[in-house]
Write a structure and sequence with these properties.
The protein contains 14 helices and 18 strands. By secondary structure, the protein is α/β, with parallel strands linked by helices.
Length: about 400
């Protein structure tokens, strides 16, 4: 089988490609990117005869991109949120199966095309969403009834180590964003940025952080799975945090209206004020470094089992970023956490272990315990606690 790694020159997708080299038996692994230097750098570093490079630009040459993807079994899409509509359209038109990292909803309009091709596309399968969906489903499956589901994560990475990460940061706290919702008593309720603060205790070395509601797809996909399972909850909330200094900056930009990205004139040129700050952060040391790197997932569910009220907490750990484990140093402790689950999803599809055709939510596509077993092989571990509700 053959896999096309779209956006494979990026820092996260190249980690997914490395995992494919280390753990899969694909006969061809193609790095596809508009940045030829970055793409060929990945090929050189992977040092595997199965890996090659194809220059592709889904923005300016959609027909060429579709042609490049034709003949591949799966496209692993590592492009940014703003490109996922176009990238999914290209994958569907190429007749391949697909998977991406973000899953913010643009993919579902291509459901019929994937079904017609007998293919599957899984939107949003990294750490969050993706692994968090698996964690929530794992707990829901163990309970007779579900009351509350609180999904949280700490993403400890620089605020702008890449253009796509800078985009994600501004996107999630955009004041006008309509998809920042919680599921409450049978309906989705929109909330503003920095809504419903909650202190969440993460394992060492991260500690306790105040987290806020974020616009992630888990809210809707977990609700859909619970409904299908006949275990409709009263509440689903998804929260997140970044390093404290990142949160401090984003909060200040929100309070001062900078996140609205209003236009200002500088030397006769009109630019968005947020665009200026994002560009500065992407090109400065302070925007590309932080003191603690890694990822920490935390899913907290209350319900009943065997007639008794229970609270089940599932959290994850991974190798340290302090240089004590080769390959997990600093930023790679973050990028590997995100990229590896996407690679695992690709391999599940290739092995026939993904369920359904069309655009399929992660909870319906994969078996959580199979995903956890694969993560364990990479030293990404799940830990379960059952406490008094």
């Amino acid at each position: 089988m053959k896999v096309f790694c779209l956006g494979g020159g990026g820092k996260i997708c190249r980690e997914a490609a490395l995992d494919l080299v280390q753990f899969s038996d694909f006969e061809r692994i193609t790095i596809g990117d508009f940045n030829e230097d970055a793409g060929r750098e990945v090929v050189k570093k992977l040092k595997d005869k199965r890996v090659d490079f194809v220059k592709v630009d889904i923005v300016s040459d959609k027909k060429g991109a579709i042609k490049a993807m034709k003949g591949y079994d799966i496209v692993m899409d590592g492009t940014t949120i703003s490109l996922n509509d176009r990238s999914t359209e290209c994958i569907a038109a190429a007749g391949a199966s697909g998977i991406n990292l973000n899953g913010f909803g643009e993919e579902y309009k291509y459901d019929r095309k994937f079904k017609a091709n007998g293919r599957i596309h899984v939107p949003g399968f990294g750490m969050t969403p993706g692994t968090t969906d698996m964690m929530a489903r794992y707990i829901v499956d163990k309970l007779d009834k579900v009351d509350t589901i609180r999904i949280s994560h700490g993403a400890f990475r620089p605020i702008a180590f890449s253009a796509s990460i800078a985009e994600t940061t501004s996107y999630e706290y955009d004041p006008a964003l309509p998809i920042r919702v919680v599921y409450e008593k049978g309906r989705f309720v929109q909330v503003p940025p920095f809504a419903r603060p909650l202190d969440v205790e993460l394992p060492a070395p991260y500690g306790t952080h105040t987290q806020y509601i974020i616009p992630h797809s888990e809210t809707k996909t977990v609700a859909a799975y619970c409904k299908a399972a006949g275990k409709k909850p009263n509440l689903i909330e998804v929260r997140g945090t970044w390093p404290p200094q990142n949160m401090q900056l984003v909060r200040a930009m929100y309070d001062w209206g900078i996140l609205r990205n209003e236009k200002v004139e500088i030397a006769g040129v009109e630019v968005g004020v947020l665009d200026v700050i994002s560009k500065y952060l992407q090109n400065s040391k302070i925007g590309r470094e932080t003191t603690l790197y890694g990822y920490s997932l935390h899913v907290d569910v209350t319900g009943t089992r065997g007639g008794r009220k229970v609270r089940v907490i599932l959290f994850h750990t991974h190798p340290a970023s302090d240089g004590s484990v080769k390959g997990w140093e600093k930023l790679r402790a973050y990028t590997r956490n995100v990229g590896i689950p996407m690679s695992i999803g690709v391999q599940m599809i290739a092995r026939g272990k993904a369920r359904g055709t069309g655009v399929v939510m992660p909870e319906f596509a994969f078996d959580p315990q199979e995903i956890f077993a694969e993560l364990k092989k990479r030293d990404i571990l799940m830990h379960e606690k059952v406490v008094k509700a």
